[in-house]
Amino acid sequence: DTEVTQTPKHLVMGMTNKKSLKCEQHMGHRAMYWYKQKAKKPPELMFVYSYEKLSINESVPSRFSPECPNSSLLNLHLHALQPEDSALYLCASSLGQFDYEQYFGPGTRLTVT
Amino acid sequence: GESVGLHLPTLSVQEGDNSIINCAYSNSASDYFIWYKQESGKGPQFIIDIRSNMDKRQGQRVTVLLNKTVKHLSLQIAATQPGDSAVYFCAENAPSQKLVFGQGTRLTINP
Fold it and tell me: Which among B9, B46, B103 has CB closest to A101?
């Protein structure tokens, strides 16, 4: 299984809502990533987990809260988002944090109203 | 077809022609580079990588060239097919040990 799955595919939420994005991989990868991608722009790194511990936080606002319950799962909890947070949120995984061949999921298209 | 400059946002080629997509990277300390392909509605897909101790690497229908002197990377796609239509991103490993993506080039194929 060489697939990274993400749910939901689409999400519309109000600025007062709380929601979560989920990511799963069963490739035995020990590094997992969250990226944000705005339209016609490259992916921008948000968080890196290595062996289930937060390794990199790219100064992301606290309204985004990552969680890695186990080596196969990665969540991104969303609360009090702003309309400018609307974007495609991509999850990726790699064998280790320093293995740069990252496998990406299809993303969750988030719209904040 | 060949992109005529760096950071060109779009490249249009005839089906069957060769495509060349260029990328300038920023950090001379980067030692690993990747090309990703992103089709509409999908996440980026790994195409090919190259380490800084190489100047050329070939895959199936794709070749990556690295010129460290001018910090330039290119992706050549042979016999371009409709399925090659996508946005192509180069990425470099930054000294902070994360991948940094370039701005991307949209490749469109004319029949």
Answer: B46
